[in-house]
């Protein structure tokens, strides 16, 4: 592996890790009392607006015609995933919702071989196993689970898997910025009625909308898909476990929730898992990826 390629992978790992930690604050925003449909509608609309302006300025909106059907599908699946995730957070505890939704990266890593023909390294497998154990310690499901909340979280987790598997071949061909832009445009069209309703009824939540839209959706989408183009899906899956782990830390800092010793052990395990899984990527281990058309 060349020094440039190694450096690109190191940057991808670092940027995705920072993003995952930042996304751990989303449950704090969701619990602010804003309707789930308003949050998702404004999130995708503001994110799309930011990316369309940036993409147009850099002339990076062009997508081959043969890719449009998959991009539309990606936008639809992403919309459903976010809606169900926010619904789950409001119907059950944050711990239960995150524990179930984050089955998604496990399924993705398992399916990356047969679906994407990726060669998963031993470090990635070990890191994934460690991350799953750590995540379960962090978000141990307790009281507050509901049938509806669990069902919504399970559906969101399955759709999370679909987003990663559909998008990986696309990003290799089109690029992270174009994918992030157009998937949000599709999602914003689907959710336009909810966005209009949010503008009319939830104007006091504009700070939350801007954080979710411009930062955690627009900018985050570019970071996520750029990292996806440079890293195997299994490695991306492991790094994403920093999100539920960091959510516990954010809750301790800003909500006064003091987790027990096992929870902190889980946080440490997730961080170590990310280090183990990504060591080969940074040190020069090559992992082959074949695009599935």
Account of the 3D structure:
- The chain is mainly α and 293 residues long.
- The protein has one domain (3-283).
- Helices cover 79% and strands 0% of the residues.
- It is globular, with a radius of gyration of 18 Å.
- The model is unreliable at 282-293 (pLDDT under 50).
Task: Identify low-pLDDT runs.
Answer: 282-293
H/E topology pattern: HHHHHHHHHHHHHH
**What gap, in angstroms, lies between the N and C termini?**
26 Å
- Roughly what fraction of the amino acids lie in strands? under 5%
Helix fraction by DSSP (H/I, runs of at least 4): over 70%
On the 0-100 scale, what is the average pLDDT? Answer: 83
For the largest beta-sheet, the strand count, sense and barrel status come to:
none
Q: Which structural class is indicated by helix and strand composition? A: mainly alpha
Summarize, please.
The chain is mainly alpha-helical and 293 residues long. Helices cover 79% and strands 0% of the residues.
Features of the shown structure:
14 helices; mainly alpha; 293 residues
